[in-house]
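Exercise 4. Each item below gives a protein and its sequence. For each, produce the structure-token representation.

Item: Exonuclease domain-containing protein (Aureobasidium pullulans EXF-150).
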Amino acid sequence: MTTNDNLIASGAPDRGKTTSSCVHDLSSAVSSETSSRLHRSQDRIPCIATFFNAHGDREALVSLGLDCDAVFSKTFDVQPMAKQLRPKGKVAGKGTGGQYKLIEASEEFGLRMTTQRELQARYPGDTPRDDRVPVQHCAVDDATSTVLLTVKLLEDAAEVHGLNSLEETGPPRSVWPPNGPNIRIVSIDTESCVMPEDMNPVRGCEYAQYISELGGAFIDTDTIRAHPDDWQHHITTFHAVVAEHWDHHPNLRCQESMKIDHTQAYYPRDNASSGPSGCLQQLKTFLVNDKEFSALMSPDSEIIAHDHCSSWLLEKIDQPGV
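Answer:
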């Protein structure tokens, strides 16, 4: 298992580096010999991280003890990149600084997602699910959608290279598929929750937040080059539900946005579609503080203790790809 300490010893870049939101920086990173040299001494595949709204997820990962600057040679926020490459699209129409959702950005690039509300309406009760469309606010599905969006951005950047709408002077040439050494493109998403007793009185979203889910996905540029026409089917995913908070809901403002009923016995974490088992479910039994719980979840989902989140992520990031 890889640790933060030996990653730092292998020559990780200095602290204080910034998260880039420029699509040309992203294109350069996946074809950069510099990125490849950072961890070559340990025979690790060098990794870059892409987030949708990097600030929130990076902050959550830091709270778990994960040193992003040690693990990743570069980090990117892909949220602003959709505006760069779709200057006349719906998300760009929200104006400078306007916020938009991953599901909205995905749709601009021909990718599909579904909402929690749509999922519950289509598959009420115990109705088996028969599609693999990623679900909004499911950690592994959000991470998978971010990887999909990242690679689509790279593909589009190569196609529209040199457009005046890209506010760069003499940007490096983007190519598809990415050339250069093998680079692992990793996306990690976290989902947060609040304790039921904290939601009285009602205060919008001003509650103490706890990590309830971790989801990740990655694809190597060697894999993209080997499968340029169907790389979407070669993404590696990993998903964990944090045992201490498996049944807790997001804050009330988030629930209102997703049309989630906070009076449900527990938040639906049985909706993951990203993973080898697709939308299959199985009954899982686990212990939390010596108390036994059972819940339907994806066979691919793991249940881990909060204190194991950082080491679990490091192990999954370094696993072999598909």
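Check: Confidence is low (pLDDT under 50) at residues 1-16, 162-167.
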